[in-house]
């Protein structure tokens, strides 16, 4: 997970919908989803673009070609609309998330607490680190003492980002990177080229990949 700082301004489609559904009742979102597909898809596409087509939480890739037809993700409300209906159409409360039922938004459901990790405001890439051996995310030394309990709860209890499936996928990618670096040892030019390829945003777990690459092939 990483902080998303370079965000687009509020889409005009969202502003229009917010005015149209000014009562902001819980059922408004479902009604909007059904009756205003063009606007909904435009908002979802902008969220996905701002996140480089990664899930906001687990950083699995979301296929850009599938964003429009809804096969790869959904609009996530960081603060759940059932508890915070006034934030239902708030741009800063909307994220793009994978559809996994047991991790990320699927695991989170309507859960929320004041210290829940927010990738828009929290520098989470410096608070979490990945174990290159087993693919597990853990709190890093960079996580402030006064946030450690909240970050751990977010990671393990709310978002389930160390599910067996996610750990296995991270593990495979990180092992492949480690193996390639070992093979290219002593070839600085080849390592530099490999580092650039391994940083490509078309592959999942970009934050974990960058952390490992910085350890194995420091820039400069």
Summarize this entry quickly.
The chain has 9 helices and 4 strands. The protein is mainly α and 220 residues long. The chain has a two-stranded antiparallel sheet with strand order 1-2. The chain has a two-stranded antiparallel ribbon with strand order 3-4.
Describe this structure in words.
The chain is mainly α and 220 residues long. The protein is 42% helix and 6% strand. It has helices spanning 12-20, 28-35, 37-50, 64-67, 104-108, 148-158, 164-183, 188-198, 206-216; strands at residues 74-77, 94-97, 128-130, 137-139. A two-stranded antiparallel sheet has the order 1-2. A two-stranded antiparallel sheet has the order 3-4. Strand 3 (128-130) and strand 4 form a beta hairpin. Helix 7 runs parallel beside helix 9 (206-216). The longest helix has 20 residues, at 164-183. The two termini are 25 Å apart.
Throw out a few tags for this protein.
9 helices, 6% strand, two-stranded antiparallel sheet, single chain, globular, 220 residues
Note the topology.
Elements (H helix, E strand, L loop, with lengths): L11 H9 L7 H8 L1 H14 L13 H4 L6 E4 L16 E4 L6 H5 L19 E3 L6 E3 L8 H11 L5 H20 L4 H11 L7 H11 L4
Antiparallel strand pairs: 1-2, 3-4
Helix pairs in contact: 7-9
Mean pLDDT rating: 91
Number of beta strands: 4
| Percent of residues in beta strands | 5-15%
Largest sheet: 2 strands, antiparallel
Biggest sheet: strands side by side, in what order?
Answer: 1-2
Rg from Cα: 19 Å
User: Whole-Å distance between the termini?
Assistant: 25 Å
